[in-house]
Amino acid sequence: MTEAAQRYPFARTDRSPLGQWWWTIDRWLLGATVILVVLGILLSFGNSPAAAGRMNIHDPFHFAVRQTIFGLGSAGLMVLVSMMTPRLVRRTSFFFYLGSIAIMIALIFVGHEAKGATRWLEFGGFTLQPSEFMKPALIVLVAWMFAEGQKGEGVPGVSIAFTLYLVAVALLLKQPDVGQTVLITMAFGACFFMAGVPIRWILGLGAVAVAGLISLYFTLDHVAARVDKFLDPDRADTTQIDHAQAAISAGGLFGRGLGEGVLKRQVPDVHTDFAYSGAAEELGLVFSLFLIALFAFVVIRGMMRAIKMTDPFEQVAAAGLFVLVGQQAFINIAVNLNMIPTKGMTLPFISYGGSSMMAMGLTLGLALALTRKRPGAYAPHEAVAPSGTFS
Q: Is the pTM of this model over 0.85?
């Protein structure tokens, strides 16, 4: 047996679907993502007892068992989707977008309300948050439309892309879900920039986004309350973020030990929005920095591969998907560190949640599928900017 055969599960001459997938996928990105999934499962065993006890659930590992199922399902979905061709990526995203939008419309009438928002569809003891699956599908579709618009063949790609984006934003604000609205706006703006549009369009989009955020402050009471709490904490109840900060500080360099956290029992959402704080208390600053480095590696390596791609659609879609993952991780960690106002945003693969976990598997699966090695997919020596311009 050769050394290469001992190191890798498939020979280079293997033409089976799995063999071709193995030799064309970015194994570093795949490996880093699998590590995040495994860490999310391990951390759930430390956070689950506190969360279960607070909700009077008899089984202390109720959330850990579910997180394990979601994690394995997410990894399986990621691998399955990463085997797709770019054409199938577009088709899959189209159906995910349509399905998600249809369910988001249905939420207006039959949605499950929690914490003043109607974002979930409840059935059989499970809840589905369709906006999680809408996000990656939207990014792929707008990248597709931008690429079609560049061809100059009469397809109103930019207009269609904006329509898809505005429909999603309108339904998100109806729930309301300002955090997801901000997230897809930033990812949409990244696609806009990567597509090579005139700078005046980008500045215009930025101005509209800022104006929209300001208007939300004056029209949505909970947005105003969170911003006011962040700007003037002495005049508001900041118990939850204070406990999260205390948990991070108590962890020190190496933490109290997995499952040994104390302050996390006082943080209501330690298994979801504040999973980073729980991890920092139990495993310390060193692990927290390692977690941040993992996300940074996935985003930076993914962006570097996207920039080197020659196809405009694949380049913009892949970059947008990696920006989506990076921005969501940044927002969650920034909230935990009290750098920005609190938002209901999960930490990819780490926070508990079936919809979030499965949707992240879909997101990275689409990104890995687009960045696979294919004939002509990458420039031989340097990155190639998208061809064509917008008028």
A: yes
